[in-house]
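WARN no homologs supplied; continuing
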Amino acid sequence: MTAPETERALRLTVLVGESDGWHHRPVYTEIVHRAHRAGLAGASVFRGIEGFGAGSMIHTQRLLSLSEDLPVAVVIVDAEERIRAFLPLVEELVADGGLVVLDACEVVRYADGSDTDGNDTVGDGSDRDGGTRDGRERRR
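OK structure emitted
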């Protein structure tokens, strides 16, 4: 068995409330769409089941205390320079609340790092579905 390939990356985690909005759209949705337009490697949204923030009010999904403002984490991993270039696009979205966390990380590749064509790596401008980040189809 060969050792997996690894590469350095930066993980951006943006913590917001589920009910936080930006122009009639959830903040977490806006972050994901901005990351996509910026050509980042990917973004995932995770909904928490319980938590509290700066206001110290505990929000939970337990049946007896249904909350409409559960914690949400948007996680994006890409090359450090790409994440740092993206930060100004997040700043205005969390100016009224939210937390931005940056962590150095290492991406582990157990295979060739691609779905089908061998060209997909963190920060290379490609898209997991075989296209490019600007929407053009990649030549095979």
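The first helix runs from residue 27 to 37.
OK
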